[in-house]
């Protein structure tokens, strides 16, 4: 059964394509290459360059490749950008997802995985956060994703389609075999930025906010290895294949690290003491986001293999180094 992976040329989607290809599954990738790269797509997959909001294009792909399952990773992902340009997020993450879901429903797709986010919880009162916690996003990014979850909930009540929404906490690291990693040009993610500072590609790193109500005043996040996350998606596909009901799973390890702790770990692993500036808060950042991952562990039997911050950082550094070599070869 062929799986359609939207956003498969991006960071997380490309790891899903690797997991599917490693399992011998046929894969079609739909990606507009707005932030992804064609060279990130595993050669065994068919890459179609286009927009998930192009309903006629998606309908044609579903019919041509007899698609029964869609894993929807395509989207815009930068929380602070969503604060300054919310309409971009409502268009790309909500409106275009509606077109994709419509094409899926009208062409007999049965299974749908959706990349959701811990940002749907906003400033949660509980920690760790379980799936039943109140949904109060504090950024347009989180709202744009929550609206898509709600569409999926309603649509799957009315049609045979079933979905699993995976609410990722902070995704980091790279394929342990070095085949993919985060390659975004203007990356804003903490571990990516810190590894770039360690490799001298940035002069310094800013810590955004040191007055949060956390032990050291910087934000706490639950960092999950991208390959463990891809395995969670593989299990979610098996779950839907076995007839599982539509549901939502948190994806994280259940442990938080502060921005200070992450930066210290990157310095330790890289052996480089790069410059760190203390800066004001960034808008849209909740103080603490830590997952309760009991539901996914119990329901899908998910047992992460790479739950180790230093291992995540080693893989991220190694990928960053390979990007540097790639650029040097191209120059
Ligand atoms: N990175 C994280 O920490 C994180 C956390 C929670 C959720 N997510 C979600 O995971 C998904 C993947 O994120 P990522 O980190 O791999 O980002 P990414 O930017 O690397 O990947 C997104 C991919 O989608 C493609 N794309 C964007 N809009 C498209 C469109 N309209 N049509 C077709 N392709 C389009 C891009 O070219 C890119 O290849 C996103 O939906 C994001 O919201 C990411
Ligand atoms: O140069 C930097 C970059 C980040 N941070 C801080 O580090 C933490 C983590 O930031 P970042 O890596 O940008 O991730 P988040 O803003 O937490 O968002 C990520 O994690 C969310 C889920 O938690 C996802 O929904 C988003 O898509 C994904 O970008 C935050 O406190 C940031 O303020 C810094 O201090 N300096």
TrEMBL record:
Its cofactor is NAD(+). It catalyses: UDP-alpha-D-glucose = UDP-alpha-D-galactose. Residues 3-252 form the NAD-dependent epimerase/dehydratase domain. Keywords: Carbohydrate metabolism, Isomerase, NAD. The keyword Isomerase applies. The keyword NAD applies. InterPro entries: Epimerase_deHydtase, NAD(P)-bd_dom_sf, UDP_G4E. GO terms for molecular function: UDP-glucose 4-epimerase activity. Its EC number is 5.1.3.2. Pathway: Carbohydrate metabolism; galactose metabolism. GO terms for biological process: galactose catabolic process via UDP-galactose, Leloir pathway. It comes from the Bacteria. Homodimer. Belongs to the NAD(P)-dependent epimerase/dehydratase family. This is UDP-glucose 4-epimerase. It comes from Microvirga lotononidis.
